[in-house]
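In the design runs reported in the main text, the only information available to the sequence generator was the tokenized backbone. The following block is the verbatim input for one such run; it is reproduced so that readers can re-run the procedure and compare outputs position by position.
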């Protein structure tokens, strides 16, 4: 379905609601956005954890030990 059509339908439905319900919808949209942000962060963290073993051979060497204190 066309995104513009869906957007228009949502706007029309929201306009029919009370101000209290509109605030609830805004809160729900914020919740969904935060959940997506956390999901992205969790994916990044998981990828970092998975790569640690591969990079440990590169990171743990005497030549680069000076950088461990930074």
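Verbatim output:
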């Amino acid at each position: 379905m066309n995104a513009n059509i869906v957007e228009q339908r949502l706007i029309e439905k929201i306009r029919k609601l009370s101000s209290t319900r509109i605030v609830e919808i805004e809160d729900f949209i914020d919740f969904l956005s935060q959940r997506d942000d956390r999901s992205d962060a969790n994916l990044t963290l998981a990828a970092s954890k998975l790569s640690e073993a591969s990079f440990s051979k590169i990171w743990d060497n005497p030549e680069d030990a000076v950088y461990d204190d930074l």
